[in-house]
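Hey L., structure's done. Input below.
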Amino acid sequence: MESAATLLSARARSSTSSVIRDLLRLVDRPDMLSLAGGLPAAEFLPVERLAAATERVISPRSLQYGPTEGMLELRTVVAHRLGAAVDDIVICTGSQQGLDLVARALLDPGDVVVVEHPSYLGSLQSYRANGAVLHPVEGDDEGLRVDRLAADLAAGLRPKLVSVVTDFANPTGATLAHDRRVVLVELAARYGFVVLEDNPYGELRWAGEHTTSIGSIAAAAGGSDRVVTLGSASKVLSPGLRLGWMRGPAWLLDAVVKLKQSADLHTSSLDQLLAADVLGDPAFMADHLERIRTSYRDRSTALVDAIEELVGDRVEARRPDGGMFLWARLRDGSSTSDLFDRALDAGVSFVPGAAFAPDDAPSDRMRMCFTTLSAGDLHRAVGRLGEALGAVGPR
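Output:
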């Protein structure tokens, strides 16, 4: 008798688990100092402010079904924050759902999606699940190499979608330079593809200059019908609320709303009204974001300082201007996947760079998240990494 698993669809059989979530289960030990997670610091989750908001918004309406495109209160707040019209906004159950809805709305099996190499793992999963052919284009410290993309397009590449995380990208921490954003908008208009601008980390900048969004650049150039922008409340408010948003052209949002109806009818009405109450409080948000930025700045500094002090001859890392991650490199070019098991034995974890490669190729890189450990624990974590590298003595 055949296994019941043969009843699964081709899409389900070909789906892969999140490497990072599998790693987090593996490293869930009391003695582990984890640099692997991409979680916001728990002490900055605004418990008291959300509790106060709950008292204000709880009502039969907040517990009832709501419109698929999202509650007007939250759409209005998001539109104001993005400088967009309310009709240009759809609320999603996390920006991850936004990725999946855009993929479902645009992609047929075999369509080409350009992704930066390396890329956010969640986008790779979504595009693969929707039958896309991934075309990686190299990135550097200023984001996607649009010159490489332009060369591939001139040689005949015809993607349906180009996907980028624009600000403090996961995993590299890179921010796409302004001139590259302009070129990307021009290429989208010339070759007819859609740009997906994913920006969950942009509000976590503590140094450097703010960069204009691709959506705003496209709107000023009259090409906004080719750009969709995703944002999230997960990094600045609460990941547990599962709230994201999408700004895009009407032709795409109409399709997205129909697909969302079949997926979940609508995002939680209560969570949306909670978020609208808090995100729509400018005084609270200004103070809240400043506390997060200051803490993350100090923790990133502590992590880089510890790397330079303890393992600087073996590991290289740039000081970030914002975000949640360091994209560190082993100076000898060896594989961080090979280092991973030794690091676990030493009591420290990270995410090997191969997890973010569209082709799963070995990598000398590792993603290190600095948000959830104190300065002292970050120093101890690097000491344990040095132990795994053979660069320092035993604990």
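The chain has two domains: 9-38+285-389, 60-281. The radius of gyration is 21 Å.

-- N.
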